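notes to self, project folder thing:

trying the whole complex as one job this time. last attempt i did each chain seperately and stitching them together was a nightmare. two parts in total, labels are on each line so i dont mix them up again. if this works i'll redo the older ones the same way
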Amino acid sequence: MSDREAILGRVRRHARHAAAHPGPHPVPALPGGFDAFAARLRQVGGEALGPWPEDGLGRRVAERARACAGAGGRIVGAPTATAWLGPGPWETAGADASPSSFEDVAVAVLLGSAGAAECAAVAVEASLALHRALPFLCRHLMLLLPVPAIAPDLHTAQARLGAGALAHPAWTWVSGPSKTADIEQTLVYGAHGPLSLDVVCVG
Amino acid sequence: MSQALDRRAARLLPDDAHVARHDAAVFDLRRRRDAAAAEVPDWEALRERAAALKRHTLDHLDVHLERFESRAVAAGAVVHWARDAAAHNDVVAGLLAEHGATRVVKSKSMLTEECGLNAHLAGRGVEVVDTDLGERIVQLGHEPPSHIIVPAIHRTRGEIGALFHRTMGAPAGEEDPERLTRLARRDLRTRFLAADAAITGANFAVAETGSIVIVTNEGNADLGTAIAPLHIACLGIEKLVPALADLPVFLRLLARSATGQPLSAYTSLFTGPRPGGALHLVLVDNGRSELLGDARHRDALACIRCGACLNTCPVYRRAGGHAYGRPVPGPIGAVLAPAIGATREDRALPQASSLCGSCTAVCPVKIDLHEQLLAWRRERPNRGRAESLALAAAAAVMARPRLYRIAGRALARVWPLLARRWPGNPAAPWLRARELPLHPGPSFTERYAAAREEPR
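result (full assembly):
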């Protein structure tokens, strides 16, 4: 008997088929909007910029990116982000670039699809990221997020990704920069991924 | 039985200073969890919902497993089934061999610990690098993790610095956590970029879409799977949740319960392989389907591996994870061990509890942990001959009032002897860390009799 048959056979025998699905969780009203999101993001080690209007967005993001990248630091933008921002100090590498070509990227600029204020999370869809490794190899990550996309809670935020999730094979909720407290519970940013995170709120 | 636990605890935390440090470090996670939970107005409702979702999922696990498999396959993943640890190890080793993969990066997976995967692969010429910083520390130190979320919580910065000096070229005497982390970051970067396979666990598996969810603070799972062409995800069959819409219930509970964060830094959902890559999912049983048939204990399968019960347990905090001798220690480890463990020591783990119930109070999916420990004690008393004889003798004495009074008077005489340390003293385990209380003097019966004889 295959492992599959053995396992499913035992599970079928023991599954009681009794308890019904409890249904959707009734979410309480939680604080939303830019202020709630920004406060929470600061708590988890990130920084919320803005809200900035679309007009002049490219200039402001460029200024911040240059400051974070430092002299000679590489700034790479995903095409979906740079299309929004217009020309700037960012490279738009080809989609077939190898991960190691991003190894020395100082600042990566990507688009966020949705936000949840209660946990300062921004959904980054892999398909919009140029390369899945880019948001994790860069030293500083900048995510562009329209303010209307910020929901108060994670349930609402995820529901907005809804149909998109099935169409897009991978997403990541990003809540602050990469971190670890594995050495004597001392918080250190940039364990493997970016050392810092900006969420540029637009609108 | 719990003497083995005592011995292992003494090795890990050899003195009061180590015990106190470990206790404080672990309990700090409990405090953070409390602060985070207090900020969530629907915390108790969330726990209730999560418990109900898991009950439903386990009740219909066959349906959800088959749906998960068909959706995952439709999305381009390959699904494997493994009835036990050996089967799991064979599947993974086979996949790596098939793909010619010898350099593997692995993110944290308690299941792979349970199956002993690293040792199995090492014997087959595969280099496995654990990329979670805590896991890397214990890997370099040739020891198992002692906590499921913070694997090296039993190590001081000095010990880790010395380890990095020996293995990673850290300057001698380097102890600064930030500098040590930067060193590890540089070293592990090269391994990520050179890896030909990434092995991960999965925190959840979504039946509706055939997706897996992987949660980290470091981003190591994402980095590994984004670069290596082969991704192998290993998960227990109990990890299923029915639908995407159910995920936020668990996500809002998980990180808060584990470390007091509103959400972990990276919560990633993968459906099918990435472009140019291959995704293999290994569904592991290893005793879980059997546990599903145990009406009293099946709820333990709801566990989402947050570690909250470890952080609050006075036994875990003061004994450390290695004392349990299990990949998953603490209250949930003790509850699962008699079902998923094989050794007599494993089956005795439910004895090592004061039944304070703190674990049950913090469990995000409302497993009645301490009551399950008590139930195991009833079902599997696991007593040695000496203990059985002693209990039989005690029962015989307590059933005979005259014998009981004689025994009581004898004990009063012998009491001062018991309070001193001498080889063979039956009170020795108690005396290791405590003093014997003063004997209260005459028994209640004696005082009552004396009072009655006094003239009014």
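what i see at first glance: Residues 4 and 54 of chain B are 34 Å apart (CA to CA).
need to look closer tmrw
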